[in-house]
Specification:
Layout lengths: L13 H11 L3 E5 L6 H6 L2 H4 L4 E5 L8 H18 L6 H10 L4
Parallel strand pairs: 1-2
Helix pairs in contact: 4-5
C-alpha cells in the first residue's frame, strides 16, 4: 500500500477522492467533525468506502463536542495542547478561541 498525506476536504470532492483511493490502495484516514451527530451515523455515510482496508474514518464520539478543536482539547487537556501549539493559555476557553480563530476551510 502507498502512504501519502493529502487533504480531501469536505463537499463534492471528498467522494471522488475516496473512490480513487479505493482503486489505488492508497491509505486514507478521514478525520471528521461530528457536527453534533452520533459518530456511528457519520461513519455510516462512509460505509461504501470503509469497506476497503486502506480507508478509515475517525469521528469524535461525544456529540456535544461538535468540531475538531474542542475534541482535541477534551482528549489532550490544556497543558498538552499548550505544549503542542507552543502557547501558554491560562484557560481552556482562551485556547479554544485561539484554535477556532485559526480554522481553515
Amino acid at each position: 500500500m502507498n502512504h501519502r498525506t493529502s487533504r480531501c476536504g469536505q463537499g463534492p470532492g471528498r467522494a471522488p477522492a475516496l473512490d480513487i483511493a479505493s482503486l489505488t490502495g492508497n491509505v486514507v484516514a478521514v478525520v471528521r467533525d461530528n457536527d453534533g451527530t452520533e459518530a456511528a451515523e457519520v461513519q455510516r455515510k462512509y460505509a461504501a468506502h470503509t469497506a476497503f482496508p486502506n480507508i478509515s474514518v475517525h469521528v469524535g464520539q461525544d456529540k456535544t463536542y461538535r468540531t475538531l478543536e474542542p475534541q482535541l482539547l477534551k482528549a489532550n487537556g490544556l497543558v498538552a495542547m499548550n505544549a503542542i501549539l507552543g502557547e501558554n493559555f491560562a484557560s481552556e476557553a482562551d485556547l479554544l478561541e485561539h484554535m477556532e480563530d485559526r480554522k481553515t476551510t
